[in-house]
Design brief:
340 residues, alpha/beta, Rossmann fold, N-(1-d-carboxylethyl)-l-norvaline Dehydrogenase, domain 2, 2 domains, 8-stranded mixed sheet, 51% helix, G3P_DH_NAD-dep_N, Glycerol-3-phosphate dehydrogenase [NAD(P)+], G3P_DH_NAD-dep_C, phospholipid biosynthesis, EC 1.1.1.94
Length: 340
């Protein structure tokens, strides 16, 4: 089938490679005509994913209509802050009945909406066949064909299974899940905890600290997710703890590396300028902190990361505040606590 991938960054390039090797007719859209021409000529993406080799069947283009026209599946793989503009531009070019996939991980600043909500606002017709793709998926490893698993989440089982069938490969396994809220939130909020993991590594903390951070970070993610209508079971899966583990521990993780830079005293502006790529956790921290306040959900790790990023707080002092919080139960509700 024809499949369009909108966004030629690392993840978009990796997905286009998987789809091309699966013998689909793939259009990879790049915003710049010069970049699209470079991709087409060299079959490499040295800017974002040097190890990827685009299969011959992948067409690289900067023409959005040519990319999306007649595509049965359209994957939006731009950074989260560009999803609204990409979806709005796509609306008039989509084929009737096309499955739209959000491969971005984040929350929109201002509206605090998930990416699927943003897409539906721009493309109302996509609501019935919208899929979110998320999981422990570093593009660098997918490009090397290393075993990887991901989750296709949708209210439509048919749409989720269409994406599953399109992407399944010997090295790329796709699971389906009806909980699109939980899958999207897991993908967005784990980046906040990864910033904290990088800070801990930069301050010289050990494995005990990282294990505690990840575990309590997952508790925060789950609390906010449940308050927003997600299933708690989702956060025990690939899009929850799976993505959290890889993003907090991997050398590929931009968010962890940003945390290392924060621990070294660099500012957000310096980090974003040096990275040359979007560090999604920086934006997600702002949105999640506002959501937690709006919904009355306690998220102490997110609150401290927010202080470091947006109020200039010292990272070591932020850790001290977390460790010095009043005593509490690990399991915060339920019959076990009530009857204890």
């Amino acid at each position: 089938m024809k499949i369009a991938v909108i966004g030629a960054g690392g993840w978009g390039t990796a997905l286009a490679t998987v789809l091309g090797e699966n013998n689909h007719q793939v259009s990879l859209w790049a915003r710049s005509q010069a970049f699209a021409a470079e991709l087409a000529a060299t079959r490499h993406n040295p800017r974002y994913l040097p190890d990827a080799v685009l299969p011959d069947g992948v067409v690289c283009t900067a023409d959005l209509d040519a990319a999306a026209r007649g595509a049965a599946i359209v994957i939006i793989a731009t950074p989260s802050h560009a999803v609204r503009a990409a979806a709005g531009a796509l609306a008039e070019h989509l084929a009737a009945g096309a499955v739209v996939v959000s491969a971005a991980k984040g929350l929109e600043i201002g509206s605090l909406k998930r990416m699927s909500e943003v897409i539906v606002e721009e493309i109302p017709a996509a609501a019935a066949r919208l899929v979110a793709l998320s999981g422990p998926n570093h593009a660098e490893e997918v490009a090397l064909r290393q075993p990887t698993a991901t989750v296709a989440a949708s209210a439509s089982r048919e749409a989720a299974e269409a994406v599953q069938d399109a992407l399944m490969a010997p090295y790329f396994r796709v699971y389906t899940n009806p909980d699109i809220i939980g899958v999207e939130l897991g993908g967005a909020l784990k980046n906040i905890v990864a910033l904290g993991a990088g800070i801990g590594d930069g301050l010289g903390f050990g494995d005990n600290a990282k294990a505690a951070l990840m575990t309590r970070g997952l508790a925060e993610i789950t609390r906010l997710g449940v308050a927003m209508g997600a299933s708690p079971l989702t956060f025990a899966g690939l899009a929850g703890i799976g993505d959290l583990i890889v993003t907090c521990t991997s050398s590929h993780s931009r968010n962890r590396r940003a945390g290392l830079a924060l621990a070294a005293g660099k500012t957000v502006g310096e980090i974003e300028g040096e990275t040359g790529m979007v560090v999604e956790g920086i934006r997600s921290t702002l949105a999640a902190h506002q959501l937690a306040g709006r919904l009355g959900v306690e998220m102490p790790i997110t609150a401290e990361i927010h202080r470091v990023l947006y109020q200039g707080a010292d990272p070591r002092e932020a850790v001290g505040r977390l460790m010095g919080r009043g005593r509490t139960h690990e399991v915060e509700e339920g019959a076990e606590i009530e009857n204890w």
